[in-house]
Design goal:
By secondary structure, this protein is α+β, with helices and mostly antiparallel strands. The strands form 5 sheets. Strands 6, 10, 11, 14, 15, 18, 19, 20 and 21 form a 9-stranded mixed beta sheet that branches. The chain is elongated. The mean pLDDT is 93.
């Protein structure tokens, strides 16, 4: 089998032959009247017209030689066969085509539609034009791009050859369009908020840091989709706002976590977390139906039916059910003992009681198939949510699907004094070395002192799409960040 450089060298020679023959190997446009999908859908009607038409695409297969050649074209919408005959094209042109064309090239062909003796819908080529001369061979259908990292690194080749993968990203586009249309139909205003921030907020996460040269100051890439900015818009008088945008978290890679990804966040004035749960359940069902055409999914070892009544999972009761630990009274030593008994591994960097409880919860949630909502989270676990009537938990809700949290919302905290105290508690944790704790945002507290109406907020990332598609999140991204070779 010829090596990569040998193949490239041969193709460079063919490139020279094209130029010597007066053929532009890289024209700015080539004849194309119909997509290949349009040809397939309207073949009978177009064939009856007995007129020459022009189609174009990438050559994905060439067979035959001498007096007849069969070429399969692919243009991203479908495949179609072109037939070249010596008595139609002429011996010289037929020979030239056979000499310079390789699988991977883009060409345009013009001719008349017909059906071959084997019943294959085809076009009889009367002329052809080079669109792009490829210098590298396509991967073999069965033996190319078997390495998973190489697939992600050369995504364009993987998508080119994998129709199922191509369709995955069509579904992802439908997913976000369905969310956007749902929010707009519910009367929400789409907004854009800053990506560069002086103070990160809205999540517990380690941010990316960069330097703003014009202002000569260090700034952070946002870790939420404008949570504290959108709440300022509640103060300003907007009642329903949302943003779909990119967020960035300088954290580890896992099947469920990426460092930069797309997220939706909405904020709804004069609504609480109960209203949010009703809206989110309807949204998830709508989006699943539009993007996937079903409400039933197989995700890992779980079978999930979104049409079933959504359960409510109490945070403390669920942990006690699966671990026999009462987090209301348990000490850090008690929790560590339970984690050891359950054989749960954890990193003790930035370790404290809050992190320990969260680790215990993550063990428990893997046993919940959903669909449902996690509620009654302890106040120390969620510094931005409104306190419940019991004074110990917050009005927070998180959709639970297939053992994972796929979204988070709450009745937003609008008491500026309470918010300041919680920010200070987070800042104390940060000063003690917890670089995922939230920063104290003095400007936001000042905005709250102007008065923010009762508000429900919610956020969900593209991890929901990856879950419904039953894919690790990196495989559900077009171009995930990869370490250079």
């Amino acid at each position: 089998m010829a090596g990569i450089e040998e193949i490239r060298s041969e193709r460079l020679k063919k490139l020279s032959l094209l130029k010597e023959g007066g053929r532009n190997p890289y024209p700015n446009k080539i004849p194309r009247q119909y997509s290949l999908e349009e040809i397939r859908s309207n073949f009978s009607k177009l064939e009856e017209q007995k007129k020459d038409i022009s189609i174009a695409g990438r050559v994905v297969a060439v067979r035959g030689q001498g007096a007849i050649q069969f070429v399969v074209l692919h243009d991203g919408t479908g495949k179609f066969q072109a037939v070249l005959k010596k008595d139609t094209l002429g011996e010289e042109e037929m020979s030239f085509f056979g000499t310079v064309i390789d699988a991977g090239d883009f060409i345009s062909v013009t001719g008349e539609l017909f059906i071959t003796q084997r019943g294959e819908e085809s076009i009889l080529v009367k002329s052809w034009v080079m669109g792009t001369k490829s210098l590298r061979a396509l991967p073999e259908k069965w033996h190319g791009l078997e390495d998973e990292d190489e697939k992600l690194r050369k995504r364009y080749l993987d998508i080119m050859q994998d129709d199922e993968l191509r369709e995955l990203f069509v579904k992802k586009s439908k997913f976000w369009n369905a969310i956007r249309s749902f929010m707009l139909n519910e009367g929400f205003l789409e907004v854009e908020t800053p990506v560069l921030e002086n103070t990160t907020g809205g999540a517990d996460a380690r941010p990316f840091k960069t330097h703003h040269n014009a202002l000569d100051l260090d700034v952070f890439l946002r870790i939420s989709c404008g949570e504290l900015w959108q709440k300022r818009l509640m103060v300003a008088g907007y009642n329903k706002v949302f943003e779909i945008g990119r967020i960035f978290r300088n954290e580890g890679i896992s099947p469920e976590h990426a460092q930069d990804y797309t997220q939706l966040e909405f904020y709804w004035g004069y609504a609480n977390y109960e209203d949010g749960m009703e809206l989110v359940e309807r949204m998830y069902k709508h989006v699943a139906t539009v993007a996937f055409g079903t409400l039933e999914f197989t995700i890992g070892n779980f079978t999930v039916d979104l049409s079933k009544p959504w359960e409510r999972y109490d945070y403390g009761e669920t942990i006690k059910k699966f671990t026999d630990i009462d987090i209301a009274t348990a000490t850090l030593d008690d929790i560590e003992g339970a984690l050891k008994r359950l054989r749960v591994e954890y990193d003790k960097k930035n370790w404290n009681r809050v992190r320990a409880i969260d680790t215990l919860w993550k063990y428990c949630r893997k046993k919940l198939s959903g669909p449902g909502f996690l509620i009654n989270v302890p106040v120390e676990m969620s510094p931005l949510a409104k306190l419940s009537k019991d004074g110990k938990t917050v009005e927070q809700f998180q959709p639970i699907i297939a053992g994972s949290e796929v979204g988070k919302g709450y009745s937003e905290l609008n008491d500026p004094i309470d918010q300041a105290a919680r920010f200070q508690a987070q800042q104390d944790m940060r000063d003690a070395g917890d670089d995922e704790a939230q920063m104290y945002d003095h400007d936001f507290v000042e905005a709250l002192e102007q008065g923010m109406p009762p508000t429900c907020g919610f956020g969900v990332s593209e991890r929901l799409f990856a879950f419904l598609a039953n894919k690790p999140i990196r495989e559900a991204q077009l171009f995930p960040l990869m370490r250079p070779k």
